[in-house]
Structure formats: C-alpha cells, structure tokens
Amino acid sequence: MWIIIAIICAALAAFLYNYVFRTSGPNPFDIDTREPLKPLVTQKKEKNKVLKQGFLASKVPEKLDAIVIGSGIGGLGLAVLLAKVGKRVLVLEQHDRAGGCCHTFTEKGFEFDVGIHYIGDLLEHKPFRCMLDQLTNGQLQWEPLDNPFDQVVLGPPENRRTYPIYSGRNRFPDELKKFFPGEEAAIDEYMRLVKKAGHSVWFLCLLKLVPVPLAKFLVYTGLASRLSFFFRMASRSVTEVVNELTENNDLRAVFSYIFGTYGNMPKDASFSMHSLLICHYLTGAWYPIGGASEIAYHMIPIIEKAGGAVLVRAPVNRILFNDNKEAIGVSVMKGQEEIHVHAPMVISNAGIFNTYQKLLPKELQAMPAIQKQLGMVKNGAGGLSIFLGLTGTKEDLGLKADNYWIFTEHNMDELVVTYLKGNREESAKSVPLLFAASPSAKDPTWEERSPGKSTLSLVSFANYEWFEEWKDDKVTNRGTDYKELKQTFCDSILEVVMSVFPKITRDKVEFIEAGTPITNTHYIGAPKGEIYGADHGIARFSAECSITMRPQTPLKNLYLTGQDVFVCGFAGALAGALTCGSVILNRNLHLDAIALAKKTKRVNTKKLE
C-alpha cells in the first residue's frame, strides 16, 4: 500500500516538476536587453506619435501572430513578451491613447495620472524590477518615495491620529511598535502571517500553469490547502485575522488600512490577498520618473520593432470564430463600418466580463464552461477619482512624495457599509475613506516640466448605481443633476483635503474634476466602473476559483491576460501577462525572469569588483 502511495507521489512530483521547470518554448528573458539610458522626452507631440496612433485598416501589420484586446499593462506586457521572441502582435485600444490605467491626461496645463500611484518591490536586480527593465529595454526609471511612504490618518479633525508606515522588513514592524507599546506580540504575529501567506503565492501561479486535471486533483484532494499557506489563509477575512491578534482598534485599522488598493472592505477581503500588498511594499515604494505615460511609451517601440503595432480608437465589438469555435480574429468598429482583422490567436486584456459578455457570440456565451467562470466572480467596487490642479510648488503646499490614507474613524467595515448603503446625495457629503497623493511631488522632473504647479490625486469608492442613470448620455454633457452630484463629492472631499493639508486653500485650487464609475466605463472600459477588475473578495481566492480563472479559455486560441488572470493592480496585471505568456510560449516565464535577475546581479557585481 505504502509503495503504491510512494509511486503515485513520485509520479505527481515528476509531473509538477515538468510543468514548473518546463523550458521547451522561446525565452523572452534569454538575454539582457537594457540599452543606455536616453534623454527623457517631454514634448507631448513627440510622445503622442507613439501613444496616439489611430486605427486604420492600412496600419494593420500583415501576417499577425496574435491580437491583444486592450493596451493596459496586462495587454502591453504580454505583447512585449511575445515581441521579444519574434512574434508580430497587434494591440487594439478603444480609448484615444494607449496605456489603460497607465495613461495620463492634461487639463488646464496640469498632467494627471489616472491609475499609477506607487509601485513596490522595485529594488535593483530583484525579479520584478528586472522584468520591468526588460519590458522597457531599461528606459523606464523609478524614483523612490519618502520613508514613511504611507500615512494612515484616523478620526475627525478634533481627534485625529496619524500613523506613519515605513518600508523595510524590520523597520516596518519596529516603527509600529513605537506607536503601540504593549502590542509587540500582535505586531510580530501579524508580520509572520503576512510574510508566510504572501511568500506562498507561487502556488497560486503553479495552479494556473499546470494542466486542468492536475490542478483539479490538487484542489479537490485538499492538497492545495495543505501544501500552500496562501490557500490556507485565503478563506479568512482581514477583519477575522486582525481581530484575533489585538483588541486595540487603531492597531486593527493600521493592520487593515491598505484594503483600498484592491477594493474590498476588511470583513470581505481575503487575508492572503491583503498579505500580497503588505509584502509588495516591504522593501519600499516607487513612482515612474516622467509620469505614468512613460510606461507605455517605452513598451510600444519594442512591439513595433518586431513588426507589430499598438493602435488606438480601435473598439473591438466582437471576437471572430470559425465553425470549430476557434478564435480567428476580431471585428473593429471604424465609424459605422466593421473591419475584420485576422490572427491565429486572440488575447483579451479587456477583463473577463467584457470578454465573455460583450465580445462573444450569444451561442458561445451560453457554453456551460463560460457560464461557470462567470458564476464564480462578480464585478469589483466602483472607483471615484478627484483630480486637483493647484497653484504653487510642493514646498508651498506642504506636499511630499508619500500617500495619505484618510479615514473618519478606525471602524473601517462599518464606515464603508454605511457609506455605500446610504443615499447617494447624503453619502456624497461625507466620504469616510480617501486616498490622497501628489504625483507632482513624487516626480523629480515635474518642476522643470510644470513650474509653479502641483497636482493631487484623490481616490475613493462609489456605487455604480449612483450614476447609472447617466451612463448613456454623452460623456461631455450628462446633465445638471450629474454635475451637481459630482460637485457635492468634490466639495466634501476638498474639505477633508484642506483639513489634512493646511497649506492647501481654496484660492490655490485652479482645477478640480471628478471621475465617477461611469467615467471609468467610458475611458477604460470597466463594465461597472470598477478599477480592479473582477471582485477581489474571499471567493475570488478559493482554490477552485483560482484554477478556473486562468489564461486558457474554454475556446481554442482565445486567451485572457491581466489582472483578472492573477490579481489586481500594476504588479498583479503584469503577473497575469507573465502567466499568460508562460502558457502561450510553453515555458515558465516567472522562473526565467528570476534567472535573468540573478544573472544580471552577478554581472554587475563582477563589474564593481
């Protein structure tokens, strides 16, 4: 009996080894492609030649190897990976500029980032940094934020408490202990759980790479939970875990504060997802020098060099299939005309809901396998953004290269529930949670590009249903009631900003505008105004859902990439691209990136010697 079990275990181990370390396909990380750093391009016209190439049938490259729907980082990242092994890829973007949530826009002389606020895990020669260097040929540079990089603000102005969050594997907990004497054991245990869960995420990747029958075996036998602490903690909420650690309400809030980066209040959030974010910033936080548009600007030329293209104003209205239910291309709307573009492979970065519910023919939408996937997920929370253009330098306004997480009190679950269940007009008057950051203060090139000006990006959540009645109106003319509701949000949030940043006064406000969930639907194609794709609640991180949400779809030659494949955010969407690329190229690109990181570190170490 034991011999049979041993044989089965050995066979299973050999099978897993084959898929974890498979190297049969071409390797986009085979060589270090970093080039000498070129001067920063600040002229909008020059950048727009790359970022705003409009769709025309005549611009579509011949003999395409793949079509990617959506130019967010999950789509661009995958296109670059394929381009680096000689694939000719066409990326199609419905907006008028490439980048997805990495794009920027300018109003009244102020440049605003729409989604990139800070990125972690970018120490030199670490795999994530190495991967980004390769995806941009070393042209994308990063500026570290201040330390502390986050400030957690709790309570009303008359009883406000501020807790700084420091980077550093030891400094982060050590600084917390200074603010919470007597809670050393709770802080140490929190760090132990966070690190153990966060560092076990490799098993999530494994389940998405191995064949479905093997993945199901690992899940339904319970081995996935036994072998991975990530899955063991995935079913536990942040609230449940932190409440077991301490009775101190402020410390509970500080343990939980970063839930805004994935969109679920602590009682609905998976502790494993939460752990990923805490681990992501343990070594620091960074911002792209020159602004978020630099990301797409340095990726697109690599796609073009391989014979591909990134074309905007190219709304895909459906994916084309042959009689065998194999994806063979897409249909793009050019005015009232449909233009068909063919390729042997279609990869969607448009998200699972857009892909399955809008781009598939009705008969394919109805497939049980498609409906099963849709039934396992739901739309994420709607995002609300306020863009503030200010007169004055960062010194004048008291702005630093850090972020503020502002809460009206420590009871975060109750705050969010009351706010989202409230009447929209009343909720607009009192937004209980707010992320505030100054892109201009983080970017060392800003003062030269926009002297005497500053920007502040403010982010919270809002129900899509609060704005749904205006979703079909023209984006620039949605009526007086819509504008009044937006203005109420702006006014109440501005009051919070002025109380936290006393040097910011109304006379310094030169520009203010709100982006609502239906704004997100228009500009980034989010079906319900969500900014993090499919909901990142506890159900999303069950082992069963994890093996179902994978790059391969039930339809041959159709793949998914981006944050719905892995997890949300910039790093999560890139992990989705890496996972999708691993499936397409038949090799583990995660390990390839790690190997190149080690190689470049050794080379640079020898140079220093």
TrEMBL record:
> What GO MF annotations does this protein's record show?
all-trans-retinol 13,14-reductase activity
| Its membrane topology | Peripheral membrane protein
Q: Which reaction does it catalyse?
A: all-trans-13,14-dihydroretinol + A = all-trans-retinol + AH2
User: Which GO cellular component term is one of those annotated?
Assistant: endoplasmic reticulum membrane
Answer whether the UniProt record assigns the keyword Electron transport to this protein: no
Q: What is its EC number?
A: 1.3.99.23
**Is NADP one of the keywords?**
yes
Name the coenzymes or cofactors required: FAD; NADP(+); NAD(+)
Main enzyme class: oxidoreductase
Q: Which SUPFAM superfamilies match?
A: FAD/NAD(P)-binding domain
Pfam families per record: NAD_binding_8 (PF13450)
List where the protein spans the membrane. Answer: 66-83, 201-223
Q: Which family does it belong to?
A: Belongs to the carotenoid/retinoid oxidoreductase family. CrtISO subfamily.
Q: What is this protein called?
A: All-trans-retinol 13,14-reductase
Q: Which organism is it from?
A: Salmo trutta (Brown trout)
Q: What is the lineage of its organism?
A: Eukaryota, Metazoa, Chordata, Craniata, Vertebrata
